[in-house]
Specification:
By secondary structure, the chain is of the alpha+beta class. The protein contains 9 helices and 10 strands. It has helices spanning 2-38, 46-51, 57-78, 173-239, 245-259, 264-278, 304-337, 383-449, 455-489, and strands at 40-45, 83-101, 107-126, 133-145, 152-168, 284-289, 341-354, 364-375, 492-493, 498-499. A 6-stranded antiparallel beta sheet has the order 2-3-4-5-7-8, with no helix packed on it. The N and C termini lie far apart (104 Å).
Length: 509
């Protein structure tokens, strides 16, 4: 009798401890409940979340970058089109004392008052084949002499002048600029597509982060319900002396441990991150839905060498090709500084001068000019030669860095691609393991109904199921992360074995 009273006293005391634990738990969780209650939950499946990727910040920025890049290339293409300018100068009045040549050859300072005005049109055209410039101009100048009372005036008419300027034996700057612009377009197109796939990758990552936190909470709820059931059963069996006190204590400890578990902070952080990506208003909170039983994970049959090649090409080769062109331009500029410069100017046209338009063509003159200049650098302290040498060494460094970066990246890429099917196999294995653990847990509950509790087996199974389920979800996340990572890096869907981007790059000469 005394023993029964003692056991009842211990049970009552432990019940009070459990009640106190529940009270403390409620106090701890209440602030989080208040915070989450303010936001209305909005559910999303993975496909629904991916459909909203075009509304994300990263995707929208990539669209704007694409528009900016298109305008920049239009600016470059505009450089090959004619540049036509109309220049008009309104009468410019000037009164000053200046030196004037006399009829007898002497000079005197005289007061002069005059006004000048002009109107001209000039057109210039770059010649892509040679890099030279062709110009044409036509114009009319008027000079009003206001020094005398009769206010005389005179005209100068440029009937048309055509000229051409060319640097001989120099590199064609336009051809290299065109190569750079073409390669820049390739790099920008790839980068733009990768940024949009990266936005999907970030959405998938945030989606599964929240899913794992949600399911962790659900697993704990199930564990708490099971622990309460085991604890209540143990309490009844202890009163009937059908289990030992240590087994009862183990049941109580498990129940208290499951009671104090809380991951609301992690859930709120994951919700905030996904909500920002989805651009949800403050009054809405995301809730993700993923039915893993509807997804069958098959072995993926992609070609590793193809994916590796695409990753290295789009992530490294195309960017280094652009840097190589830019460095070649620097080398050619540096070489031009130490090489002779030969410049040819050719021009010709018709001019006339007159006092009235009726005599505009009476005194016309055919003008010509031919100029060939040679500039040879002799000495500048070795500055130009050293600059040329530096540009050559930088090209060597660039080529070495390209090979090093590709070799380092290839190791991680091959490792990832080799691991994907391992992840798929592990997912299927864990799915089978969870089914077996669920059956074992049902057997444990069945034996409890008959008054037989193996606390060691119960604790082990519960721990194994929780860890296995969270590992299972983490593996599913890894699967999708791999899929969307290589959609981003290789612009290739390794799940459907389809190319997301086919480049049509041709060499530009």
């Amino acid at each position: 009798m005394e023993r029964e009273l003692k056991l009842n006293s211990q049970v009552t005391k432990r019940n009070m401890n459990c009640s106190m634990a529940k009270y403390l738990q409620l106090i701890f969780i209440l602030p989080f409940l208040c915070l989450t209650a303010k936001a209305q939950e909005r559910s999303f499946t993975l496909q629904e979340a991916l459909c909203l990727v075009p509304e994300t910040h990263g995707y929208r920025q990539s669209v704007k970058d694409s528009l900016i890049n298109d305008l920049r290339h239009k600016i470059f293409k505009g450089g090959i089109k004619p540049d036509i300018k109309l220049t008009m100068k309104l009468p410019e009045y000037e009164k000053s004392i200046s030196l004037v040549s006399q009829y007898d050859g002497s000079y005197k300072y005289r007061s002069r008052t005059y006004a000048t005005s002009s109107l001209s049109i000039e057109a210039s055209q770059l010649i892509p084949l040679t890099g030279g410039t062709l110009k044409y101009s036509i114009g009319l100048n008027r000079l009003d002499n206001l020094t005398n009372d009769d206010n005389t005036h005179a005209y100068y008419l440029n009937l048309g002048r055509l000229s051409y300027c060319q640097n001989l034996f120099a590199f064609n700057a336009y051809k290299w600029a065109k190569r750079q612009d073409h390669q820049q377009q390739i790099v920008e197109e790839i980068s733009n597509r990768q940024e949009r796939e990266k936005a999907r990758y970030e959405m998938v990552d945030a989606f599964f982060d929240l899913l794992i936190q949600q399911q962790s909470k659900e697993v704990n709820k199930r564990n708490l319900m099971l622990s309460r059931y085991v604890y209540e059963k143990s309490k009844a069996l202890l009163c009937d002396r059908r289990i030992s006190e240590p087994d009862y204590l183990d049941a109580e400890i498990e129940y208290m441990r499951d009671s104090i578990y809380n991951n609301e902070t992690d859930i709120n952080a994951a919700k905030t991150r996904l909500g920002i990506l989805l651009r949800l208003p403050p009054e809405e909170s995301p809730h993700v839905i993923f039915v893993d039983s509807l997804k069958t994970f098959y072995h993926l049959g992609f070609n590793t060498s193809v994916i590796l090649s695409r990753c290295l090409k789009y992530g490294y080769d195309e960017n280094y090709n652009l840097k190589e062109i830019q460095q070649n331009i620097e080398i050619k500029k540096a070489k031009a500084e130490i090489s002779p410069l030969v410049k040819l100017d050719l021009g010709g046209g018709y001019n006339s001068q007159f006092d009235s338009f009726g005599h505009a063509l009476d005194d016309r003159l055919a003008s010509r000019n031919i100029s060939l200049s040679i500039s040879i650098p002799l000495y500048n302290g070795g500055t130009s030669k050293n600059r040329y040498r530096i540009s050559q060494i930088q090209m060597q460094k660039l080529n070495e860095q390209r090979e090093y970066d590709k070799s380092v990246a290839a190791v991680d890429i091959v490792k990832d691609l080799s691991n994907i099917n391992v992840v798929i196999e592990s997912i299927n294995n864990y799915r089978e393991r969870l089914n077996l653990l669920t059956m074992q847990m049902e057997n444990v509950k069945l034996r409890m109904n008959y008054g037989r509790i193996n606390m060691e087996q119960y604790i082990r199974l519960k721990s194994q199921y929780s860890q296995s389920y969270m590992t299972y979800l983490t593996l599913i996340k890894s699967y999708y992360i791999y899929i969307y990572k290589y959609r981003y890096l290789a612009l290739f869907d390794i799940e459907s074995n389809e190319e997301l981007y086919m480049d049509d790059s041709h060499p530009v000469h």
